[in-house]
């Protein structure tokens, strides 16, 4: 009886509501961390000062832990994130204990092996490991962060940040339909990823995975992995459509294919060579094609 009333009141399953709340909070911390990082990148290439480093580490680490728990919760259910002795006995019990705030989740150490299945790659978890150590040093031992660590942090924090946001974007297109850019806002996003040390190191990391990454059509960093169809720098992925370049003949021309039908033309740029031009949508055959500067806009498919 109770359960019927509950389900009428809350049509969305409890697990979805909890994980959505956790993703939301993770996003909150990520955005704050992004603001901290970006306001530093305005001032040049010095390492973070100790206060900023402390804030960034704690914000990012908290966001990672929340996102990890939420991912496992969403995919594997409440029993898999609760401590063994704390597992709820029924849906109603879970509901009541969630409202009372008495569900104790596994420690991050115990959650990590599960979260790896849903979030980040190898380099992501290596960085998380080092952030966690720094956080423990700061919070529990008040140990100072040396300058080298504070310098590396600028790259590491941005890398982690973009990867979590990208994972959130991918996890459920309808519920978390925000790209990194719309999530952080255009200005903040661009300040964050255009920071030189980040661009350089994320480019190196991309070349370890793909020897010839494309220049990303969104952020302009050479970090777009061809097989994964994902940009390591800005997280752009999913639904990427590329056209064949008339100059280098590779399928490497980026354009905004989703918005093209609503525009007479849009800018297009090759991620392999230097070619730039325009993409046009043909309403007759529903295909997209490329043109150069002042050439006539006739669809090559419908031409004859
Ligand atoms: Zn990109
Ligand atoms: Zn080209
Ligand atoms: Zn056509």
Structure overview:
- The protein has 304 residues and is α+β, with helices and mostly antiparallel strands.
- The chain has two domains: 2-193, no CATH class; 241-291, no CATH class.
- Helices cover 50% and strands 10% of the residues.
- The strands form two sheets. A five-stranded antiparallel beta sheet has the order 4-5-6-7-8, with no helix packed on it.
- Strand 2 (222-225) and strand 3 (230-231) form a beta hairpin.
- Helix 2 (14-41) packs antiparallel against helix 3, helix 3 packs parallel to helix 7 and helix 7 packs across helix 10.
- The longest helix is centred in the first third of the chain and has 28 residues, at 14-41.
- Residues 1-7 and 172-178 have low confidence and may be disordered.
- The structure holds zinc ion (3 copies).
- One zinc ion binds next to loops.
Structure in a nutshell:
The protein is α+β, with helices and mostly antiparallel strands and 304 residues long. The chain has 10 helices and 8 strands. It has helices at 2-9, 14-41, 50-76, 91-100, 108-115, 122-141, 147-171, 180-184, 186-193, 196-209, and strands at 214-215, 222-225, 230-231, 242-244, 251-254, 266-270, 276-281, 288-291.
Q: How does the SSE layout of this entry go?
A:
Layout: H1 2-9, H2 14-41, H3 50-76, H4 91-100, H5 108-115, H6 122-141, H7 147-171, H8 180-184, H9 186-193, H10 196-209, E1 214-215, E2 222-225, E3 230-231, E4 242-244, E5 251-254, E6 266-270, E7 276-281, E8 288-291
Antiparallel strand pairs: 1-2, 2-3, 4-5, 5-6, 6-7, 7-8
């Amino acid at each position: 009886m109770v359960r019927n009333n509950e389900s009428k009141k809350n049509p969305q399953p409890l697990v979805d509501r909890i994980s959505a709340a956790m993703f939301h909070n993770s996003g909150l911390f990520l955005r704050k961390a992004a603001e901290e990082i970006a306001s530093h990148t305005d001032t040049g290439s010095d390492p973070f000062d100790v206060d900023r480093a402390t804030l960034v580490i704690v914000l990012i680490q908290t966001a990672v832990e929340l996102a990890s728990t939420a991912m496992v919760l969403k995919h594997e259910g409440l029993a898999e994130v609760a401590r063994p002795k704390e597992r709820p006995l029924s849906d109603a019990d879970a509901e009541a204990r969630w409202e009372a705030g008495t569900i104790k989740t596994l420690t991050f150490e115990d959650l990590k092996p599960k979260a790896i299945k849903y979030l980040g790659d190898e380099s992501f978890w290596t960085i998380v490991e080092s952030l966690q150590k720094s956080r423990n040093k700061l919070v529990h031992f008040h140990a100072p962060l040396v300058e080298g660590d504070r310098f590396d942090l600028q790259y590491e924090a941005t890398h982690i940040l973009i990867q979590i946001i990208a994972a959130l974007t991918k996890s459920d297109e309808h519920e978390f339909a925000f790209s990194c850019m719309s999530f952080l806002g255009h200005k903040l996003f661009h300040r964050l990823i255009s920071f030189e040390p980040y661009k350089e190191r994320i480019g190196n990391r991309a070349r370890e995975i793909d020897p010839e990454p494309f220049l990303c059509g969104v952020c302009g960093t050479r970090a777009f992995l061809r097989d994964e169809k994902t940009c390591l720098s800005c997280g752009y992925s999913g639904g990427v459509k590329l056209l064949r370049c008339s100059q280098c003949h590779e399928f490497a021309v980026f354009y905004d294919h989703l918005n093209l039908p609503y525009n007479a033309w849009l800018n297009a740029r090759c991620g392999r060579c230097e070619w730039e031009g325009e993409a046009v949508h043909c309403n007759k055959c529903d295909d997209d094609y490329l043109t150069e500067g002042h050439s006539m806009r006739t669809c090559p498919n419908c031409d004859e």
